[in-house]
UniProtKB/TrEMBL annotation:
Residue ranges of coiled coil: 10-63
Annotated Gene3D superfamilies: P-loop containing nucleotide triphosphate hydrolases
Cross-referenced InterPro entries: NrS-1_pol-like_helicase (IPR045455), P-loop_NTPase (IPR027417)
Domain NrS-1 polymerase-like helicase: 593-704
Coiled coil listed as a keyword: yes
Source organism of this protein record: Streblomastix strix
Pfam family, one: DUF5906
Keywords: Coiled coil
Record-given protein name: NrS-1 polymerase-like helicase domain-containing protein
């Protein structure tokens, strides 16, 4: 029984607790609901108060506007001359120096001190056009600026060097400085903006308490300067009715149309100027880029969740309906423009006054189309979207434009090749730079450097090829240099000054490096991608050979070099004809001229080397120049003369094997100090000149050496050699070259070499003592 009572009591307590909890929960829910309703009412009240405040503000502005308009009208209705008449200072003696009080000097112009203009609203945009451009190019850019970058209602003055001063109203635009110098810098245009502003100090953004002197040269002013040792008088001239211009354009509208915003803190302004971030939409020709569809669509997509006002305040303060319409009407793609129009009301909140004046704002916006103003709206009022979407697109568009400009410039560069017959060398580049012939255009420098320099890949880096004059050969030749050597030469050629930086010839090579590159090099090639080392012979082929011009030399070849051996004589003429008629091909045989000194061997070889000037080495005296570590003496040489070589006999067997390899191998590796190691074609043919009876070892089976025992018939005959050598003029060389070029060698095989007694003697001398014993006792051994 007690247990039953206890259970009933517990049930009653639980029931009472549940009822209490339910009542408590109901009270809490009612309290929460009350708080929610109070919050909603509070927000509604705040919203209503805000709307009322906006209405009051709009009403206040509506009352204020006529007053502001009237005050502004009093200023803007004045002519430029009326506004600057008390701010003009005389210049004297054809200088830009202001006349001092009490001075009596010739007045030659006027300075306008913007700090003295009473209304403080006048400002000047200074377009400085590249002074290196021609008059025609300068005039074209200035006209483009007037037609494309400026509205009609600006005062225009042509500056002394063909630039432009555009007078407009600052109209409340807060410049970072009263002299915004080089705020926009392009290759052909530099833009400064001058106005009556306090100049910010760089540290802390504090303002100075006085206006900094800010002067520009007025129209009808003259000054003199000396250029190229010539005294010139230059003049500033009004382009339009400058003096009587009224109701000037707003600086804000002009900069907005360029998508330029310098109404920022001075420190940020300096950083952006240094990074050249202003003027991305301005072209080198003085026009404004059209907005492409990708950026236009992105801007329309970003025009959401904005509060749009009626009164056109500066965009960094609020979004006005006029600026939105101005931006959308500037979009050229009709579909994107229509979508933007639809989005204005669908995704944004318009103030009552904006709704009320919707039609009028649309009409005014259509009259002032400027798509780039949309990017400014998003920069200030949809910041995250601007940073993540719009800014990358603008940067991408700028980079594409920059690359396109480079591409266009590259297309205009003449792709010159090295021509050894053209006298132009690096000295001419230096001379043109000294005389200012390149007009601050690196592409013109690159165009000339292409006539002189080429770059090919080598085993351990780039190999630089340069055309240089060879005083010994008497013609331009090809030289190989390291990167360090070429860079040192090009750094010494100063082109012009860009601010504090010297622009030098190496800058042209670096910027247009790919134009100089070749995939490789061969001695002779018709492939434009391969550098052809052979650039033609020094002498020309004549239509007809005058035998009288060359008969004395041919007489020397026959009676001295061939020793009146007809077979040897014909072989020698055919051998050299093969070399000149088959450029880059080897005979795979060598000539040995054996005989006393002073008989005319070197007269013969010197003439042959002169015919191949630039592609011959006429006096190699060390075997190491052929087979040693640094073997440049035979690089790209069609003929090399080994003249009484030292060290040759010290290791006849190894030297013979090395020469055998040079005679037959198609390539060899060139090692040269300070130049990357590189492989070249072996085009060399060798003549060995010696008075040694045993100059090298020749095997019995040899098919590579033709040995000529030269005759000493003219030895000591000074008159003969004087007369002969005096005949070696250009006429002689042209006729001799033509003789070899037209000689019929269709049946000639260089490997079919004649045997001579002199060669037999060398073969016999080349037999080792052991072989000699075996041969002399051959019969006794056989029995």
């Amino acid at each position: 029984m007690d247990k039953l009572l206890e259970q009933q009591e517990l049930a009653r307590i639980k029931s009472e607790q549940d009822e209490f909890d339910a009542q408590k929960k109901e009270v809490e829910e009612q309290e929460f609901t009350r708080h929610i309703m109070e919050d909603i009412d509070q927000k509604k009240l705040k919203e209503q108060e805000k709307q009322e405040q906006q209405i009051e503000m709009d009403q206040f502005l509506e009352k204020l506007i006529p007053i502001a308009v009237q005050m502004k009208e009093e200023t803007v209705s004045k002519t430029i001359m009326e506004r600057v008449k008390n701010a003009m200072i005389n210049t004297v003696n054809y200088t830009k120096i202001g006349q001092k009080e009490g001075e009596k000097k010739q007045v030659t112009g006027k300075l306008i001190d913007l700090t003295l203009v009473e209304d403080g609203d006048l400002c000047v945009i200074d377009f400085d056009i590249n002074k290196k451009l021609s008059i025609e190019e300068t005039d074209k850019i200035r006209k483009n600026i007037i037609d494309n970058m400026l509205p009609a209602n600006v005062g225009l003055v042509k500056t002394a060097h063909g630039g432009l001063h555009a007078y407009c109203n600052r109209d409340g635009y807060t410049l970072p400085s009263n002299r915004c110098v080089k705020c926009i810098v392009l290759d052909n245009i530099q833009i400064d903006i001058f106005g009556q502003m306090f100049k910010y100090k760089e540290h802390g953004g504090m303002e100075q308490k006085e206006l900094v002197q800010n002067r520009v040269v007025g129209p009808n002013s003259s000054f003199r300067e000396t250029k190229n040792n010539k005294r010139e008088t230059l003049k500033y001239e009004a382009v339009n009715d400058w003096a009587n211009m009224t109701h000037l354009a707003s600086l804000r509208e002009i900069l907005d149309s360029w998508n330029v915003d310098i109404e920022i803190p001075f420190k940020d302004y300096v950083d952006k100027v240094n990074m050249r971030e202003f003027g991305w939409q301005i072209t080198e020709e003085g026009t404004i880029d059209k907005m492409n569809d990708e950026i236009a669509q992105a801007c329309v997509d970003g025009l959401k969740n904005l509060e749009i006002h009626n009164y056109p305040q500066p965009i960094n303060m609020e979004v006005s309906l006029l600026s939105v319409f101005s931006g959308i009407y500037g979009i050229t793609n009709e579909q994107i423009r229509a979508e933007g129009m639809k989005n204005i009301r669908q995704y944004n909140k318009l103030t009552p006054n904006a709704e009320k004046n919707y039609g009028e704002a649309s009409f005014n916006g259509e009259r002032k189309p400027n798509p780039w103003i949309l990017t400014k709206i998003l920069r200030y009022h949809n910041k995250d979207y601007y940073e993540w979407t719009i800014k990358p697109l603008l940067k991408q568009n700028y980079e594409v434009k920059k690359q396109q400009k480079i591409s266009d410039t590259v297309q205009q560069i003449e792709k010159n090749e090295i021509d050894l017959k053209d006298p132009f060398t690096l000295i001419d580049v230096s001379s043109k730079a000294l005389n200012g012939k390149y007009e601050n255009k690196l592409e013109l420098v690159a165009q000339d450097l292409l006539k002189v320099i080429k770059v090919v890949p080598c085993q351990n880096g780039w190999c630089f090829i340069i055309k240089e004059y060879d005083c010994i050969a008497g013609k331009n030749t090809i030289k190989y240099k390291s990167k360090t050597a070429i860079y040192d030469q090009l750094r010494s050629i100063r082109l012009w000054q860009d601010g504090k930086k010297h622009i030098i010839a190496i800058d042209a090579l670096k910027q247009y490096h790919s134009l100089f590159e070749k995939i490789g090099m061969k001695f002779i090639s018709n492939n434009e991608g391969i550098f052809s080392i052979f650039q033609g012979f020094k002498y020309m082929q004549l239509d007809e050979v005058d035998q009288t011009k060359i008969e004395q030399f041919l007489g020397l070849v026959k009676d001295t070099i061939a020793a009146n051996d007809e077979l040897i004589y014909e072989y020698l003429l055919n051998w050299f004809s093969f070399i000149v008629q088959n450029i880059g091909k080897k005979t795979e045989t060598s000539i040995i001229l054996q005989g006393l000194q002073g008989i005319g061997k070197n007269v013969f070889t010197n003439v042959l080397c002169e015919l191949l000037a630039g592609y011959s080495s006429k006096n190699i005296t060390d075997i190491d120049d052929f087979v040693g570590k640094f073997n440049t003496a035979i690089e790209n040489k069609m003929l090399a003369i080994a003249n009484e070589m030292k060290n040759f006999g010290e290791s006849r067997m190894s030297n013979m094997d090395a020469l055998k390899s040079i005679n037959t191998e198609s390539t060899f590796v060139i090692n040269e100090k300070y130049v990357p190691k590189h492989e070249v074609e072996n085009v060399v043919n060798i003549i060995i000149v010696t008075n040694n009876i045993f100059p090298l070892k020749i095997e019995n089976s040899d098919r590579r050496y033709v040995v000529c025992k030269c005759n000493s018939v003219h030895r000591g005959d000074l008159a003969y050699f004087t007369n002969l050598c005096n005949s070696f003029d250009d006429d002689f060389y042209n006729n001799l070259f033509s003789f070899f070029m037209t000689r019929d060698i269709s049946q000639f095989n260089p490997r079919n070499i004649p045997m001579t007694q002199a060669k037999k003697d060398i073969i016999k001398a080349s037999i080792s003592p052991v072989d000699d014993v075996i041969i002399s006792h051959f019969k006794s051994f056989s029995t």
